[in-house]
Amino acid sequence: MKPVNSLLKVCGVSFSRDGKFIFKNISFELFAGEILILLGPSGCGKTSLLRCLNRLESVAEGEIFLQGVPISRITSPDLRRRVGMVFQTSADLLGTVEESISVGPSLNQQKISAHAVTSLMEKVGLDTSLRNRKVSGLSTGEHQRLSLAQVLANEPQVLMLDEPTSGLDPTAVLTVENLVQKLNASLKTGILLVTHDINQAVRFNSRTLVLANGEILADGNIQELINSSQNLQLQKFFQGQF
What we know:
six-stranded mixed beta sheet; four-stranded antiparallel beta sheet; 9 helices
């Protein structure tokens, strides 16, 4: 049964850079409690689309709604708190793990308790013994988990993950994928995960948007899309011809 609690609604959105359209007329909805995979080849505009969803980029056409309200009417700090984004490359942060997790709430004039920091670290699988460790001393995987904890500290309604397993070894990739599944089950937020890896999309076995050539080629369960023979463009994508 299709979820009914719509979080994000994207209506006819287009984005251009230097006078050239990166994507045109993109429309979809993200519902509470679902993992939506945004799948497409590198350079097709997946990250740009995510950045449009919390106004880090401006759309050329169309409208984006967060729980029925145009995001253009929501202040940038509030929007980016409610629509959190974990970037492919973690930001260079200073200080300790605990200080980094506390950054978001402090920007919103809120104080996060030591217990809440511990809970967030446990939630993302970050060893609590690292709370006083300098961020510069973390491994790539630990840094990515810290970035996730930072975003979750703001209690977002939508969690956007841009290639969250990029640069990780195969074991760490599976660990992060399992973590995303667990977070989805416990938090009931809407999760939008970007990947160019078809195998990763298959492992999630979730609703998938295929973005290529500046448009959404298909929207559906990944297994059903792979087995579909009616969309020739889609089959070319799965055959690696994009």
